[in-house]
Design goal:
alpha+beta, two-stranded parallel ribbon, elongated, 2 helices, 28% helix, 65 residues
Length: 65
């Protein structure tokens, strides 16, 4: 099942990196071919310390979509 609009707000930031890498492609598969994904997240540079929960996404995380 796919959807015309998928909204992801801060959920991925609560997941450890190994689970995030599993979740991102699954979320992407929910978006229909001509659909829209709206991703709302905090971001950080690749080499910045992720700090404490919630862990901001990197550009590399977003590019997986």
């Amino acid at each position: 099942m796919t959807f015309d609009f998928v909204l992801e707000v801060y959920t991925l930031q609560a997941l450890p990196q190994n689970l995030r890498l599993t979740a991102i492609p699954k979320i992407a598969k929910l978006v229909a071919a001509d659909g829209t994904l709206l991703l709302i997240t905090r971001a950080r540079g690749e080499h910045e310390d992720p700090g404490a929960l919630p862990w901001p996404l990197t550009r590399q995380d977003v590019d997986i979509f």
